[in-house]
Amino acid sequence: GENVEQHPSTLSVQEGDSAVIKCTYSDSASNYFPWYKQELGKRPQLIIDIRSNVGEKKDQRIAVTLNKTAKHFSLHITETQPEDSAVYFCAALGPLSLTGGGNKLTFGTGTQLKVEL
Amino acid sequence: DSGVTQTPKHLITATGQRVTLRCSPRSGDLSVYWYQQSLDQGLQFLIQYYNGEERAKGNILERFSAQQFPDLHSELNLSSLELGDSALYFCASSTSPTGGSPLHFGNGTRLTVT
């Protein structure tokens, strides 16, 4: 099955600096890569996603890049603010299940981002 | 508000007991996913249903079972509970049967097994 590795596990930056979180996946058939932000005690929320036919996607201060050949994708946050402090999860959508036709979204282990004043 | 409703918010029970977690998906979403979030293991996929049918299965224990009803709400049943089952259980819904659309998570049910 799909395996997603995420680095670093913790990241501390100064306000205004950029933050980069990297993920690798194992299944070359994976075709959808979302990123979720989870604030303390709250539910994960989608912040950006990218499909395998696109190399880069940007939404204001957030961007995601995908390298299918190397099987890795990254989240870039520019001009970080204190409200960006949270746990960020990458995920990869695996191939269709042979039995049910659905497929599972496998999550990385998360990156605790702390933006310091 | 994601539109996904999970009940109860908190559940405290003893080892060996059985509990039922309930989820109502966003209006119009036919897919429901269950995830377990423990401190050390991130978000672990348990099972997916689409329009009442099981579509994909993760590392769900045999002691756990789920179903999706005709009104599209879903229930996750956990039996013979062990201390290690203590976790935050999230339900998520989406429009797609194949997972290629955003998941909308509920606020979770925190299960504590004592």
Describe this structure in words.
The complex is a heterodimer of chains A (about 120) and B (about 110). Chain A is globular. In chain A, the strands form 2 sheets. In chain A, strands 2, 4, 5, 9, 10 and 11 form a 6-stranded mixed beta sheet that branches. Chain A is an all-beta fold. In chain A, about 0% of the residues lie in helices and about 55% in strands. In chain A, a hairpin with a 4-residue loop joins strand 7 and strand 8. Chain B is mainly beta. In chain B, strands 2, 4, 5, 6, 9, 10 and 11 form a 7-stranded mixed beta sheet that branches. In chain B, a hairpin with a 2-residue loop joins strand 5 and strand 6. Chain B is globular, with a radius of gyration of 13 Å. At the A-B interface, strand 5, strand 9 and strand 10 of A face strand 4, strand 5, strand 6 and strand 10 of B.
Question: Gist?
Answer:
In chain A, 0% of the residues lie in helices and 54% in strands. By secondary structure, chain A is an all-beta fold.
- State the end-to-end distance of chain B: 31 Å
Mean pLDDT score of chain B: 94
Look at the helices and sheets of chain B and give the structural class. Answer: mainly beta
Sequence of secondary-structure elements of chain A: EEEEEEEEEEE
- Spatial extent as radius of gyration of chain A: 14 Å
Main sheet summary of chain A: 6 strands, mixed
Report the order of strands and helices of chain B. Answer: EEEEEEEEEEE
Mind sketching the topology for me?
The complex is a heterodimer of chains A (117) and B (114).
Chain A: E1 4-7, E2 10-14, E3 19-25, E4 32-38, E5 45-51, E6 56-59, E7 62-67, E8 72-77, E9 86-93, E10 105-107, E11 111-116
Chain B: E1 5-7, E2 10-13, E3 19-24, E4 31-38, E5 42-50, E6 53-57, E7 64-68, E8 74-78, E9 87-94, E10 104-105, E11 109-113
Parallel strand pairs in B: 2-11
Antiparallel strand pairs in B: 1-3, 3-8, 4-5, 4-9, 5-6, 7-8, 9-10, 9-11
Give short descriptive properties of this protein.
heterodimer, A: 117 residues, mainly beta, 6-stranded mixed β-sheet, 5-stranded antiparallel β-sheet, 11 strands, globular, B: 114 residues, 7-stranded mixed β-sheet, 4-stranded antiparallel β-sheet, 0% helix
